[in-house]
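Researcher: Next sequence.
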Amino acid sequence: MRLGAGAREMMLDGLDAIREECGIPTSFPSEVVAAAEAAAARTPGAEHRDRTGERFVTLDPASSVDLDQAFAIERAGDDVILHYAIADVGWFVRPGDPLDREAFERAVTVYLPDERATLYPTVLSEGAASLLPDVDRPAVVFTVRIGTDGISRLDGVERALVRSHAKLAYDAVTSADLPEGFGELHRRIQLAERARGAPRVEFPEQEIDRADGRLRLQFRPRLESEEQNAALSLATNMAVGEALLAAGTGLFRVMPDVDERRYRQLRNAARALGLDWPADVPLDRFERSLPRADPRTSAFLIAVRRAAGGASYAPYQDGERPWHSAVAATYAQCTAPLRRLQDRYVIEAALAVAQGQRVPDEVERAFHELPAAMSHGEQRANRAERMALDLAEAVVLSGREGEVFDAVVIDESDRGVEVQIIDPAVLVRLSARRVDPGDEMRVRLESVDVERRSVTFQRIA
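Model: Next structure:
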């Protein structure tokens, strides 16, 4: 629907209310701004090796300016060598300084449709620390070797000065723009995932599209370039995870396996969506076989994400192997330090381990403090983003009271039944008896309250 002036105002007012209700900061304290400006004025020195002559490029959404990652790829015999330059936020921000203390309060960048609440002031996150094109930037370069079996190994980590030679966009990039070996790296990572039986897929997102003055809710499937680019981070994060585990240190991303009850519910969901899931095909193979442009695929993958349960962070524990079920491996995140607090600390540990040095005490201490900080920040961000979707759903559906929609049951609990409407891409909760995840139903829109961000549906069949 096209937003009139009144609807646009209600949307913006609603987003302001969400920020206030969720405690999303709208500015930085003056001492944090001053610290950021001072850090941004610093000039990299001898601790950063000059690698500006290498052809690094970035690949992100076209509008992004907080660029965490740049990459260069080469071949060494049968191996693919990834040089992954990650924004050196740890050079600008030090443990315990005003920027670090504020980052512990925020934990993550929060993205809402009208603006984002950044983890660090934009003079850093969109300026001096961002790997923008055609300027020299301090970075931490991870050298990752990917064999023909798709297994990634960490060859080295160092601070360096790099220059991105091109800012490539997901929706416009061509194979000619990318370094040789980019597609082969992705193929090898997929090969290793299949060998592990990893059910990891890049999930579609329920998103708000405000292009051309229209407001639409949609499940957007991932572009091929996005999925290929994700392999770079995955290869690096897995290699770093194994290196930290071997050194007896680190902070790991963990996720439990899908239990048997939820596995049965997923089979019900697939059947209700008209997706043919043979009994002898495991979940990971079935997911990868689904057509990405089909809205039924989006609906099923959303159900998979919910069935797996939430991911969290866990520090190293002697004798334990941290496990991430979606990756089917040990996994540590280090490739988005401009947007995620914990990555900065993992990077510092990886630098120390790769160079045979002791991990600093302040980093080891942070590994035990970060899980709570990250959980708080992620929960706040997820709540705000969910409320923004609720607001958009109410705006989109306003004036459509009385219409009937086809829906599929996604989940059930003591609070009712959650159903998914494919078009528009809306998730709602209603009262219904004797239903199971995967069941189809027809629902009627009874009422809409934009101010309360609520819509009410009733089952009719």
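Model: The longest strand covers residues 152-169. The chain has one domain: 5-249+311-397.
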